[in-house]
Amino acid sequence: MKKLKLVMVGNGMAGVRTLEELLRLAPGLYDITVFGAEPHPNYNRILLSPVLAGEQTLDEIILNPLSWYDAHGITLHLGCPVTHIDRVRREVVAADGTTAPYDRLLIATGSTPFVPPVPGKELAGVLAYRDIADTQAMIDAATRYRQAVVIGGGLLGLEAANGLMQRGMQVTVVHLSDTLLERQLDREAGALLRRSLAERGLQFMLGAQTQALLAHDAGPSAGRVRAVQLMDSAGRRVELPADLVVVAAGVRPNTALADAAGLLCQRGIVVTDTLQSVTDPRIYAVGECAAHRGIAYGLVAPLFEQGKVCATHLAQMGIGRYLGSSVSTKLKVTGIDLFSAGDFSGGPGTEEITLSDPHTGVYKKLVIRGDRLVGACLYGDTADGSWYFQLLREGRTIAGIRDQLMFGEAAAGLAQP
């Protein structure tokens, strides 16, 4: 029996996890061709920060070496971005002219960094932080330069700042919000994080808006960034010296290829519960480039859940349905444990239970509505994070363990008859 042809555009974690599931379910169904824009096999993008900090090497974060592709008969094109999808002829065209026909197409192009449209963003020494090439460029810069500014106080920005500091640079983090990690932490936990990171040597300009990136006008550094011009929280114009500027201001779903092919894109490639494009059922999308019920997920767990469902349909089993994901965030920022889930901001109709111990660096906040846990924010001690998330996701009543809730699963278990 002649094999069907499956082409995957993108070679990242979500797409390759889908292939792993497919090969487990239907190992002989497809001839598989993969196009990756980067010149590397699939690697763990989450571990770029330890590579930047010098704690791991690039080889150590490879998830699927070239031998894995060979062992499964996968035709792999690395450093070969796809530039066109011909839905009529059912083939893809790569930048080097390579073409590949498909019976099924899987788009897993991930996301692209968002670079604010400020003057000077094209200067030498201004980098986004997204892939191995960006990481290597930062490592190289740290050997030659002293002053770095990181624009963005989210997870990626803080990890970049820490890595550059570990490599000997003086680093200032510029963030538009007055709270670090404002999507994952409330104001008090964000303040604790800032204090801890400042004690380690990082500097911060919070509530500050970047106005322009300024260049050297002459000499051997002409055309390279020399400073970041910003408006601080008091409305004053400030210049921060910078030999290197790292932009970590968020990401956007990478949908340019899909959009050009006429696929419906709204916050990502719009997909059904089977991860098929609503425009063309022969085309599937998973990962950060996909929008399911209006949501484009950026965390690993939902992307792997998508891959598992998508694989059942590519395997022609037709049994999986992706219904969306309840998400929690468990992070380790420069060695500090953080966890958040649900509506941790609280508000009308909710009650808050808090525990704050600045001496030990522990802060916990639980948000309750009625007899249900609806949000949690933990700093310094996240041991019970998964239990809180289970309570929140399942909507279980906490009426009988309310007094013990703050002290974790073990204490709640002792309180129950």
TrEMBL record:
Residues 5-293 form the FAD/NAD(P)-binding domain. SUPFAM superfamilies: FAD/NAD(P)-binding domain. Pfam families: Pyr_redox_2, Rubredoxin_C. InterPro entries: FAD-bd_OxRdtase (IPR050260), FAD/NAD-bd_sf (IPR036188), FAD/NAD-binding_dom (IPR023753), FAD/NAD-linked_Rdtase_dimer_sf (IPR016156), Rubredoxin_C (IPR041575). Keywords: FAD, Flavoprotein. Its cofactor is FAD. Residues 328-394 form the NADH-rubredoxin oxidoreductase C-terminal domain. GO terms for molecular function: oxidoreductase activity. Gene3D superfamilies: 3.30.390.30, FAD/NAD(P)-binding domain. Belongs to the FAD-dependent oxidoreductase family. This is Assimilatory nitrite reductase large subunit.
